């Protein structure tokens, strides 16, 4: 790596905000010999441009000896982030490669078939005469030979050990704050009717501990292997059978890796097992700290690493979570350039939103939302509901209060369309969202205010969360929630001249700010220090609807974002 190139490799014609200083600090960190640099850069810092400059410092073929690796990877866990990179003219030399399911076959009669279900994977001994023109294999070949290959984190992990995408000189991971949690999620093994087609043929025992889980996985793997052999003996498979075969092969690999890791006395991974409903019920096997998994899929893939995010809150804790030595890691802080007065936080707390208090608190929150709607009568708003149960209750309450004409919701299957329609609309509608705290760009009039209904603490019924709390890791618990809050606060203010208000409706959010204050970035602490109680209008549902009653047209013909492409911000983080 040649850190001195970082300025020349910056792709924009000029700097904005703190980009020039950030590049100097990143260069200095690498020149001090650090192999990993964490770049804590808030919204509006231009992280993708910084990432491109870092990737450009990688050795090239002209710099390297025969035995040295060259070039760079850019990767992100978020599909929408990769979409943005692909569309950015300043990043045109990042060569994007996606999973097979994103490409269509070009054979006659198969042009609506994704490559992962094309004849080459359906038919035994199929010899594709146009493989050299296949959009997937063509893009893969191009990306493998380009200076910077860009892909989702899932694809990056899946290609570990491949001859096509081997080790490179530099790896840049954007939106890297949840790397440990994403790896845990990716390495989690789900044994259920959804993942095992022959589920009804399995007598699922009551799993009491990991030894029982190991024995059960051996049985499952045996049945999966037998079913795969049956499929392989067929001359031609249907698209559904191809998906079944690939799913079972992945499951077999995961089960084998789990048993190998569990029996390895030197492995750092701790496993937990969940079976909520006992005998005959689905089983989930989860890694607590998949350091070994990250080593193979991430850390062995490059010489130098840059990890960028607005919410890497604690360097030592982050390093411990992903298996890095803090002494070999530098943290570069990029200052915020958005005026703090443009991103106010307001205390409208009505009580606790824990499960036992929710029925008492939520009606008060709903009444407060009506008052906020009246405050922003002609501006669009976003409600972070945290769960579909809260969303359903809140929608019913707002309907009862008579403001349902201004309220939109979504379900699990219809997130794409509902989000796109709300963004396209010129109406001052309020969108009740679930799990949209990240990767959502609502610049300008797309949204001027939002409400956080519940402190986003991890679910204590999850065995991994419970285990961490048993080990007294409360700092992790509070940091995880704070990280989500900070991410959420960044949805509605996207530029220095943008503005948007965030209302905190759960009193536990105020408690969280106190408990996690020492982990707040300086720019967010300044925001939290200005927390105040707003002067809202009285509760008057007719006033909340005044912009509609005065004749606002309900139009759905204008869009400031992509629509219809099936890639809303969080529809499929793993592509």
UniProtKB/TrEMBL annotation:
GO terms in the biological process aspect are:
nucleobase-containing compound metabolic process
InterPro entries xref list: ATP-dep_Helicase_C, DinG/Rad3-like, P-loop_NTPase, RAD3-like_helicase_DEAD
A GO MF annotation of the entry reads:
hydrolase activity, acting on acid anhydrides, in phosphorus-containing anhydrides
**Which SMART domains does UniProt cross-reference here?**
HELICc2 (SM00491)
Task: Tell me where on the tree of life, at the top rank, the source sits.
Answer: Archaea
Spans annotated as Disordered: 535-575
Q: Where is the ATP-dependent helicase C-terminal domain?
A: 388-511
Keywords per UniProt: ATP-binding, DNA-binding, Helicase, Hydrolase, Nucleotide-binding
What's one Pfam family the UniProt record gives for this protein? DEAD_2
As given in the record, the signal peptide range reads none
In its UniProt entry, what is this protein called? Helicase c2
User: What is the native source organism of this protein?
Assistant: Haloarcula japonica (strain ATCC 49778 / DSM 6131 / JCM 7785 / NBRC 101032 / NCIMB 13157 / TR-1)
Lineage per the UniProt record? Archaea, Methanobacteriati, Methanobacteriota, Stenosarchaea group, Halobacteria
